[in-house]
Write a structure and sequence with these properties.
Layout lengths: L3 H4 L2 H11 L10 H30 L14 H22 L3 H22 L1 H7 L1 H22 L4 H10 L38 H14 L1
Helix pairs in contact: 2-3, 3-5, 3-7, 4-5, 4-7, 5-7, 6-7, 7-8
Length: 219
C-alpha cells in the first residue's frame, strides 16, 4: 500500500478498486482496466464535462447560472431533467443495498448521458442564435454537475469537494441527499475559479508500471 500511493493519486485507487470490486461475481485486477477507469471515466466522462460546462458559463454568461426560460425548453431538455431524477433514484437504492460497484456504474452512466446531452444540444452553437435556449442547456448541465459531485463524494471525497469549490458551493458533505435530483443551483449563482479536476495517467502506464514500481522500491 505504501507503493500504491506513490504510483498514483490515492483517490484514483479508491475509485478503481470500487469500480472493479467483486460485488456479485469474481473480478480480476488489470492495469489496462485501471488506466481506462482513470483516463476515460474520471478524466473524459466527468472531468471534460465539467471543464466544458464551466468554460461556457464563464465565456457566455459571465460565470453565472442562467435562468430557465420555460417556453424555450425542448424535449431533449425535459428528458435530461427526467433522466437526472431516474439516475439519482437508482443510485439511492443501490447505496441502500450496499451495492457500491453497481451504484458507481449508474453514476458513470449519468455522466455519459450528460455528455451526450451536451453534444446533442451544442450550446456553443445555440448561444449564437438563441442565447436563452443555450442558457437552458447550461442551467441543466451545471446542476447535473452538482448532483454528480454529491454522488461521487463517497468514492472520491476530496475531488468532489474541489468540484463543489469550483461551483462556489459549501461543504459537499452537508448537502442533503434528497436535494440532488433537483435543479438547486439558482439563476444568478456565480461559479468560482476552475481548473482541471483530474489528471490523466500516461498512455504507456500499463507497459511501464513495473519499471515505475522498481523506481519506487529503490527510492
Amino acid at each position: 500500500m505504501d507503493e500504491a500511493v506513490e504510483l498514483m493519486d490515492v483517490e484514483y485507487w479508491r475509485f478503481i478498486l470500487l469500480r472493479m470490486r467483486p460485488e456479485e461475481r469474481d473480478s480480476n485486477f488489470t492495469w489496462r482496466e485501471a488506466l481506462r477507469i482513470v483516463n476515460t471515466e474520471l478524466n473524459d466522462d466527468v472531468g471534460n464535462y465539467v471543464n466544458r460546462v464551466l468554460t461556457l458559463l464563464k465565456r457566455h454568461f459571465n460565470g453565472e447560472v442562467p435562468a430557465i426560460v420555460e417556453e424555450k425548453l425542448k424535449e431533449e431538455d425535459r428528458e435530461m431533467i427526467a433522466s437526472l431524477k431516474e439516475h439519482v433514484s437508482e443510485v439511492t437504492r443501490l447505496f441502500e443495498e450496499a451495492r457500491l460497484k453497481a451504484a458507481s456504474e449508474v453514476i458513470m452512466r449519468l455522466a455519459r448521458r450528460s455528455n451526450y446531452y451536451l453534444n446533442a444540444r451544442s450550446p456553443w452553437d445555440l448561444v449564437k442564435v438563441d442565447k436563452e435556449q443555450a442558457g437552458n442547456v447550461l442551467h441543466i448541465a451545471v446542476n447535473v454537475m452538482r448532483s454528480l459531485a454529491v454522488m461521487l463524494y463517497p468514492f472520491i471525497p476530496s475531488h468532489a469537494q474541489r468540484l463543489f469549490n469550483m461551483l462556489n458551493l459549501g461543504e459537499v458533505e452537508e448537502t442533503p441527499w434528497n436535494s440532488i435530483s433537483e435543479l438547486a443551483l439558482r439563476p444568478g449563482h456565480r461559479i468560482g475559479e476552475f481548473h482541471s479536476l483530474f489528471k490523466k495517467l500516461p498512455q504507456d502506464f500499463e507497459n511501464s508500471v513495473e519499471e515505475r514500481l522498481s523506481a519506487i522500491r529503490e527510492k
